[in-house]
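pasting for ref
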Amino acid sequence: MKAMILSAGFGTRLAPHTDNLPKALICHKKLPMINYQIAMLKKYGVHEIIVNAHHHYQKIVDYFAQNDFGIDVTVIVENKILGTGGGILNASNYLRNEQFFIVINVDIETSLDLSGMIRYHRSLKPLATLAVQKRETKRYLEFDAQMNLTGRENNKSDKKNLYAFNGVHIISNEIFKENPEVKFEDILDIYFDMIKTRKGFVQGYNAGESSFKDLGKLENLII
């Protein structure tokens, strides 16, 4: 099983720490935050990880050249930042032969049981499965009664159908099927387009009482 850690962002919320370092290498509890994602992915059976890089990308390249995590890690440098969607599509050569793969944001800390989420994805076979949760956020996603993604929060949304996205996806290789253009794009926009054109459905996986912390916020870092 393969996975991708989204690590190319500028980390502007973590300035000044990210003035000279990529977000992925900012320390949390005395270790670069990307170390926690690698440990989590290894725990659940991932054997190869793709890491995208843009902001201070050479420091990420050097970090993996100098540190052995007992797992294959490939760094893809984005000369122009591609966003979450473009970044994933840009990794097609590494991921398209997998039936599905895991994607996780570098700046989260969670106790999510990935094995349960993987079983859920395998049983339903959606285009993608998103880890979601009933918690406060500024950007809610809306789902129907069967937990199919229908859109973002709007003025007609029923609050009982709104969930916060926890930054973990399991994605089918169907996303690469038509060789989509690689450009700056949000992965959610790709999902909504594929839903609209009936190319697949996207499922929500309720993370329940799993802990979740956004490490992209200075107040959540323990340095």
